[in-house]
Amino acid sequence: MNFERIAITGVGLTAPNANNLRDFRHCLLHNMPCVKEIEVRYMGKLPAGVCEFDPLNYQTKKELRNCTRAGSIGIFCAREALADAGIQLLEIDTSRVGVYVGITEHGNVETETEVYNLSQFNYDVKFWAHHHNPRTIANNPAGEINLKLGIQGPHYTIGAACAAGNAGIIQAVQMLRLGEVDLAIAGGVSESIRSFGIFAGFRSQGALGYGDDPNRVSRPFDGKRNGIVVSEGGCLLTVERLSDAQKRGAKIYGEIIGYGMNTDATDAVLPNAERQAQCIRMALDRAHLKAEDIHIVNTHATSTPMGDAIECEAIREVFENSEGTYINNTKSFIGHAMGAAGTLELVGNLPAFDDGYVHPTINIEELDPKCALKNLVINEAKYIGEIKTILNTSFGMLGTNSVVIVKKFEA
User: Fold this and answer.
1) Could you confirm whether 288 is annotated as catalytic?
2) N or C: which end of the chain has fewer CB within 10 A?
3) What CATH number does the domain containing 92 carry?
4) Active-site pick, 300, 312, 359, 371
């Protein structure tokens, strides 16, 4: 494998509070969360992050009936990323385009809904949707993107729990350096709010957030945090070898210079601070950086009592002597977008290379002493001037850990 420089050249996203990077960044700098209550089958009203993009921008009504919400999110984000990058698929060899989409889970939504619908017809399987199999296969979201956009290169989803968004980006870097593709569309998507099983599972674990104001339920690091806000969302990037991007005069959001993935191998749910710290150091080593070279650490923290505290142990272990490293969290604005979380949270920080601000973690009224981190940016954006490096952490169930480091582009 060679080690050519790898650039981010386009961003397409949908989040509960925005459908493009400009608006998303505005919300993050101006304390504008967006969580609402939705009706969840069998469970009543619960806080959730809901995206408001228009899928009919890129799909027909028939396609929406036959396809999946995750696929629609992916198609929207892919189209937006390509447009942002100034790439016309008709002008390139699409057999050299790879699509790598991180997911937490897929198929639960469709299966739950179809079983419920079947129950209304006394479980007569002749009423079972004949679109079920293509809707629920694991590669569906990436496959729907390729099918709709006519991309003929390799596509697959990457199941890495809540580390999946970063994993999609990492796969893109590796495939570009291997020479397998010339352009990658990569990141993560989530349709999780459409599944009552996701909500029920977190509740049974004592990890589902609750409160009177939906916009204040997701409160990482706060002493009264009580659990996750489940959200949908998506963020896909166009990723290219820097040399190719420069040839076509592309704008460069940043360079992906380091990454790490490992596994706790200790518990299905509870994280392991030592393994998380090891993953961070792996990414730093690959980027040839020291901890003190990082300007922003965007945390995974999901607003669960134990998860946040354990992650803070890992961050302190690596960054406690880094005076110029600032810490923030994006889930306090939009909840936990599962497979899309890592990519959304990374790109929400990319404009810091230009504006010099670290967006805050909001909803902190009383900081949990176990989560007291040096330079944690709380409730108000902080201007720190020149920002050159961003490190994003994303950790998931079954002990999967991922870290991506992006550097400000300098020719």
Assistant:
1) no
2) C
3) 3.40.47.10
4) 300
